[in-house]
Design a protein that fits this description.
This protein has six helices and 18 strands. By secondary structure, the protein is α+β, with helices and mostly antiparallel strands.
Length: 289
Amino acid sequence: MKLVTYSPLPSGKQRPGILLDDKTIVEATGFATMIEIIQGGASSMEKLKALAAKPGTTVKLADVKLHAPIPRPLKNVFCVGWNYLEHFEEGAKKLEEKRELPKHPVFFSKTPTAVNDPTGTIPFDAAISTSLDWEVELGVIIGTTGKNIGEADAMKHVFGYTVLNDVTWRDVQRRHGGQWHKGKSFDGTCPMGPSIITADSLDHTNLKVECRVNGVVKQSSNTRFMYFKVPRLIAELSAGMTLEAGDVISSGTPEGVGFARTPPEFLKPGDLLETEIEGIGVLRNPVGS
């Protein structure tokens, strides 16, 4: 099942819905937000299945604005660094660093205000930086709250998946004592969507992931090449720290980022950033000024 957050054009109120055949949205009657659906667990899913089988209020996809499925997460988006070997190696080579493969995942976060719509404009502030980079990533949505979750049980805690781009201001990322948070958390630097596909509808372990700038492919890989798989990420992140329903984990990016290219490439005003994951959908975000 594909779930979206949308508002009817021209200025309707945000609401959650079920996307049918990629053309029609069924209003998720009885639910005010996507978070409410996720927190409702199995009960929510039964209600949604009934709505999908016998739709009530519907609207055409062409007649709405899609928002990030979770427009304002309840806490920071959890992110993972260096989770594809080729990306780990390209970064080490570019920065001329001698790195050993990590024994544990690298975690950081993006603030809720970084979340952007699937077609939202990414702000560009040349007074702060001009080194704006791209990172296509699979987003994992937690469905069941838990702490100290074992790898064997981790997938029971997953509600579904979405597409994210961990847009990054590279020089700012490295400006603050090696802490990545600031350079990763500018407003609008976490486009998300266009939908959440529920975990029972998608095999996340073998999905093509791709990032394009102005139609040119910059990253192309597959989730099967993740170094730390999703169960390991959930187990490590939940060790001593509660993961809650509605939390978002961005699972890392493959090779092909701009700063590691020769010469380096960065986004500029007027560019179109497209982020696509097989089976979920495409983000199309223009870079503003």
